[in-house]
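Chain A, query sequence.
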Amino acid sequence: MRNRQSGIAREFVIVGLFLSLAILFLLGTFVFGRPQEIGTGDKFSPKDGPALITNSTTLYNQMGDADRFKALAIDLSYFARTALNTYKEGRYNDITFTVDSDSVLDGETIAFSGSFGEEKGTVDVVVTLKNYGKITSDIRKNAVEINAQLPSNSKRNQLIGILPITQELYAIDYLESLDKFSIQMYSKQKSDQNKALNQLESSLGVALKKDQYSLTVPISDL
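Chain A, predicted structure.
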């Protein structure tokens, strides 16, 4: 009797293990079965997410920074969803961009051409590398361009890309880990502090809240 019960128990264990393995296999196929591309993170972008850039190993290496590569993927997605009728209609959640030509690195500028998966025609792209993982993007398809609207070309990103700025009485930089600006003062004068903040806000085109920047004065001037 005990042997029979033991045999039944073993059968349940074997069946349970088989079912567990089958479930893990199906989940693995669903999650990992779609192709991935270097530097893009997720398999395919969700709706309104970054584009999947394929044939891009050389381009990724030239950009030298995963943040820059992701910024380009976001710009390409924004361009497609905003400027191209095929994607403006919202029929496609995923956007794939294939690099069709060899990307050419010239100093801090990378030029290449490519095409979107569901849109015919060549797209010409010029990327300028900036500090702190930022870029400037120039994306054109024939006469179509919306460069002024691309996320990477915002005043904020462009300012971050050229920091630090050092003047006689202050220096302006970016605290990447905190995602905020820093103003290091070399003067205790309130007028000089206002001047530094005014330059920062003028470059951004917006007034900053106190939690969006830090202002530090020399310890001897406190």
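The first strand starts at residue 52 and ends at 54. The CA atoms of residues 184 and 216 lie 5 Å apart.
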